[in-house]
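== Sequence and structure of one protein ==
=== Format: two labelled lines per protein ===
==== Data for this protein ====
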Amino acid sequence: MLDLRPHDWRRATDVVDATTATLGPWMTFAIAVVVAVVSALVLTTIVSGIVKLALRRRSWGQSFVRHARRPFRTIVLIIALWIAIDRFFPLGLAGGDAATNTAWDAVIDRVAAIGSIAAAAWLLIELVRFATEMALGHYRIDVPDNRIARRIRTQVLILRRVAVVIIVIIAIGAALLTFPAIQTFGASVLASAGIASIVAGLAAQSVLANMFAGIQLVFSEALRVDDVVVAEGQWGRVGEITLSYVVLDLWDDRRLVLPCTYFTTTPFENWTRKGSELLGAVELDVDWRISTARMREHLQRVVGETELWDGRTAVLQVTEATGGMVRVRILVTAANAGTLFDLRCLVREEMVAWVRRTNPDALPVQRVLVTQPAEETEAEGTNTGAVEGLFSGSAQGEARAARYTNAIPVQDDGPDEDSEDARSGSPK
């Protein structure tokens, strides 16, 4: 074991002082920086090789090294430069006094500390990403029945974003603690009461509202990555869920970006909420002369010859028979939304071709009857006979007319002075 005694340290210090006196302070500082950089690179290379060798039989070993190598190398490099600058930087050559040199020394220490904190936060973030990749590797979403995998994937991605945000906040608070003037503020940010007050103060803001809505969407399972939804009249697949917005991959390769609050305040259709299997309809308007029995037989042949049909449902029914045509509705099922769309198109094309090929008389037609207007005869145009009506043409009608057209008598309760004077013509 290497045993370093105090006189060994004094001897090393004497060697450094002699080298500084011989080469000059700036040359010594440059050499120290180069030695620090080379030492950091060599150390990280050795550590990386040891870790690769130790994890060579692990499937996740290469991924771990890939995520941790650069931030770990940055931390070692910052620490090595910090030691070199703190030991060999020639502060006294600038002509400043002891107070100035102390201030410069404090600035160098603070910059190095902040750099170390940032590199450590970077390393933690990379480790979080490595852990989430390992978790997501066990749940594939490129399989037919992927509902559980999509739920786990969505929740893990949101938890990763939350963890990254927490790491960044803690790193900022730790960096603030390096400044004496604002240590109180930094401590309050790190304290739970300070975080609670910040959250309470910003809860009404739209950004934080979107963040809460995103977390609510994920853990309520109302929306998952790869879900097929209809929002704003657009059909698409959920491509990404963040803490503030949701990205829909539309069928025509467009991207629809909606805030998370949209899905918590506005009704939307989720076609894969409980499963990816879907049922779709195909409607045809045909003539009354169509044979529905033969159509059902051809439908079974069509779906039986394609891999798009999942074998669950293939039904043909007549839903309407109005307007001179018969409306036939075909219901088919498929494993997912994309396959269902292709299956519906295939069934529609095959049924139309079959009707046109085997039953041309059953194609939709519009029936129009064209006739010559009949000439009006004299007997039909002149009516000289009595026509029985409600108030004429019969004894009952005449009696009814008499009741409604004669004067209606008014019955008085008894004579009064006004009526007597009016009949006599005398004033009161």
In short: The CA atoms of residues 128 and 376 lie 95 Å apart. The two ends are 148 Å apart (CA to CA). Residues 422-428 have pLDDT under 50 and may be disordered. Strands lie at 228-231, 234-241, 245-250, 255-259, 269-270, 278-286, 314-320, 326-334.
